[in-house]
């Protein structure tokens, strides 16, 4: 059941985006759609789908070149091409008859080993395959992606009673490993998991909003990040999804579910869809409307549900949310659940509805509680699922509140009340839908949260730890805010190196399980030391930083970095020096120091020059022919270029061709561990390079000439020029005509440190750092 080629039928928004994700994963894909009767181009719709995906923002393709893996066609001339596909998925119109007709045609041409899937968001899978042959039904499994497929982690896998369990297993492993998705196995019931519970939550939030007398903007404040949910919260999510989609899903679920599951839409919502035809982002108007002021700046107007007029309500603040700012998630959730006034009444009503419904759906939409939690986290951007949130509040507290409202407890909560158990997840166990504890099973291949297992922590500091990954591999894990790099992080890497040698481990992984690999150096500390004139301390700190980053390459054992998310500044410099990199496909990597008036000081400048120089032929590594390598490094660092994916990071030179890209972020630590084990036998400690060719004054002159032209043309600021000249000095190997031969890595590191300290002492750099810390945006001074 290996999936090496795929086919997508339907080139609309979802179909084209699914094809793009397959291409991102390196899977050749055939994209088919119908023939438009009046268009001479019979493949017009499929071509249009690819072009739409290429223009999508956020980008559907990790590298636009991957679009070449998509072959377009149409369902009249090219249906026979399906015979080569190992997986066929449809994303056509949501009409049962249309899907049944399609499967009848597909069955005639698909090979007998192909897995067949539907991306339907609501039509039960077993209804689609009625009348198909037994073998076809055995290989059919629902695959419901969430939009956009590249960025939303969730994939609901929906077997029918006829699906072979081996097909479900094989497809789930492919989707998780190759496509990078988070798998939730859903039962073949209306709405499956995420939409069933998520749409119920949206509908009930609208009802409670009316009862409490709140506005959509106030509700979004209450049900957004403050509650550990996505910034789009409730009504912004509705606009993004399409109010017509929610309208149809809610109506369909209302017809297909028992009376006690209330999917009744409010009159105002019906007016928006049925009369106003304001359907959210797709029509430009929904609960919110984007407009521009006289200066061309985008403004968001809020809908007044009493007048149906759009109003500029300014920045909406809610007292209950303001009161919990800065608190950790558990404290925020507890405080909001206990809040007073109409805001508290609204939140308890919405949360209790969600708790009651999630418990009622246990064993119905899915057979595992963790699948329900994961569906809401991966599909709607929640930090905690409903059962995890009940654990935070205390399950018995939630049960008491539900009973106080006069609700009948679902069987799961009745069993929890009888047992007295106050948490669904506890001591490595999770309860089943009938309330019985069972060993917790993590989703496929995901490394469990090692921080919770104290027996595996070898050494711990406040901001970082050394963890035993098993099989002779250690992990140096950072766990500070944004994983900013300070003394704890550097010393922990040093601790880990020593432990590898002293205890006989195979090697070391640098990685973590936070939101981002590392946002770079600890800027507040650097600025405070500069303003206190602690230059000797700063010089020592930068030397230590260089020693630790370069230790990843020049140690007696292999080191593998596992970057993901934001991997900026110092985080990128650590990555650049590892023996091997296992990068998440979603990698936003860059040497961004110029944004705060500095240059990379931890070996990043040196490393990019070395890499681009090595890419040239030996005969091009001296004299003026070396200039393109210098210019490439200068442009990359001087413009603070950040990759938008690991594939782009490879194109930019941050990753080598030999480095690994993993589509699923949850796999990178385990994959990095495997790489250490593979590198360990016969590993020979590298030695620092002594043969890096540089151009000296010739390169400085060429770069300065270009810089002054850009400055005169207004493309760079006065202080950009100052920073860029320091960068040019390092990339040229220093001043002096005698710098036209070869230098050592240490020579370039010394130049980096000198330039870093020189810039840090200037007022312009300190202003840039202060502005960045205050606003989060670069200052163009």
Automatic annotation (TrEMBL):
Residues 480-605 form the Enoyl-CoA hydratase/isomerase domain. Residues 191-289 form the 3-hydroxyacyl-CoA dehydrogenase C-terminal domain. Pfam families: 3HCDH (PF00725), 3HCDH_N (PF02737), ECH_2 (PF16113). Keywords: NAD, Oxidoreductase, Signal. Residues 1-25 form the signal peptide. It catalyses: a (3S)-3-hydroxyacyl-CoA + NAD(+) = a 3-oxoacyl-CoA + NADH + H(+). InterPro entries: 3-OHacyl-CoA_DH_NAD-bd, 3HC_DH_C, 6-PGluconate_DH-like_C_sf, ClpP/crotonase-like_dom_sf, ECH_dom, NAD(P)-bd_dom_sf. Residues 5-188 form the 3-hydroxyacyl-CoA dehydrogenase NAD binding domain. This is 3-hydroxyacyl-CoA dehydrogenase. It comes from Deinococcus daejeonensis.
